[in-house]
C-alpha cells in the first residue's frame, strides 16, 4: 500500500491503440518504482477516490503525482516527461506559457476527436450521464 503512495499514478485508456502504444513505450523507458500505470477500463478505486468520471479519464490523460495532486491533459504529460530520462527537456519546453497554451489547444482538439470516434468512450459518456 505505502509503496503505491510514493508513485505517480498515470491513468490512461488501455482500449485505445494509440494510447496503449504510447504508454507501453513509456513503461519501457521509465525508471522502476516511479509510475503506477493504470488502465481506466479496469475498475479501481482511483477514479472513485479522486472523483474522476470514467469518460473524463478516457478522454484525456490524468496523472496523480507523489503529492496526491491531480494533473490533466498537457499538465499530466509534463509530470510524466519530468520523470523520464531524455524527456525532461520536453517537460521544460512544454511548460513555457505560450507553448503550453498551444499544446493544450492541440491536445484537447485531438482528445475530443479521438474520444468521439471510439465506441467504448461513447458508451462511458452515456453511462456517466446516467449517474
Features:
single chain; 131 residues; alpha+beta; four-stranded mixed β-sheet; 8 helices; globular
Could you say which structural class the secondary elements and strand pairing correspond to? alpha+beta
Shape summary: globular
Percent range for helical residues?
55-70%
Strand order of the largest sheet: 2-1-3-4
Largest sheet: 4 strands, mixed
Q: What integer value in Å does the Rg equal?
A: 15 Å
- Using DSSP, what is the number of strands? 4
N/C terminus separation: 30 Å
- Strand percentage lies at 5-15%
Structure characterization notes:
With 131 residues, the protein is α+β, with helices and mostly antiparallel strands. The protein is 57% helix and 12% strand. The chain is built from eight helices and four strands. It has helices spanning 2-5, 17-29, 45-49, 54-59, 74-82, 88-94, 97-115, 119-130; strands spanning 8-12, 35-39, 62-64, 70-72. A four-stranded mixed β-sheet has the order 2-1-3-4. Strand 1, helix 2 and strand 2 form a beta-alpha-beta unit. It is globular, with a radius of gyration of 15 Å. The chain starts with a helix and ends with a helix. The relative contact order is 0.15.
Give me a quick take on this structure:
By secondary structure, the protein is an alpha+beta fold.
Topology at a glance:
Elements: H1 2-5, E1 8-12, H2 17-29, E2 35-39, H3 45-49, H4 54-59, E3 62-64, E4 70-72, H5 74-82, H6 88-94, H7 97-115, H8 119-130
Parallel strand pairs: 1-2
Antiparallel strand pairs: 1-3, 3-4
Amino acid at each position: 500500500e505505502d509503496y503505491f503512495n510514493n508513485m505517480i499514478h498515470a491513468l490512461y485508456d488501455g482500449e485505445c491503440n494509440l494510447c496503449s502504444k504510447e504508454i507501453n513505450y513509456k513503461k519501457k523507458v521509465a525508471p522502476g518504482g516511479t509510475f503506477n500505470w493504470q488502465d481506466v477500463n479496469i475498475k479501481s478505486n482511483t477514479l472513485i477516490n479522486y472523483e474522476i468520471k470514467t469518460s473524463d479519464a478516457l478522454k484525456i490523460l490524468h496523472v496523480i503525482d507523489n503529492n496526491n495532486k491531480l494533473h490533466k491533459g498537457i499538465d499530466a504529460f509534463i509530470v510524466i516527461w519530468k520523470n523520464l530520462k531524455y524527456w525532461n527537456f520536453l517537460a521544460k519546453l512544454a511548460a513555457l506559457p505560450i507553448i503550453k497554451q498551444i499544446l493544450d489547444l492541440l491536445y484537447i482538439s485531438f482528445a475530443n476527436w479521438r474520444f468521439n470516434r471510439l465506441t467504448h468512450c461513447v458508451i462511458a459518456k452515456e453511462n456517466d450521464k446516467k449517474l
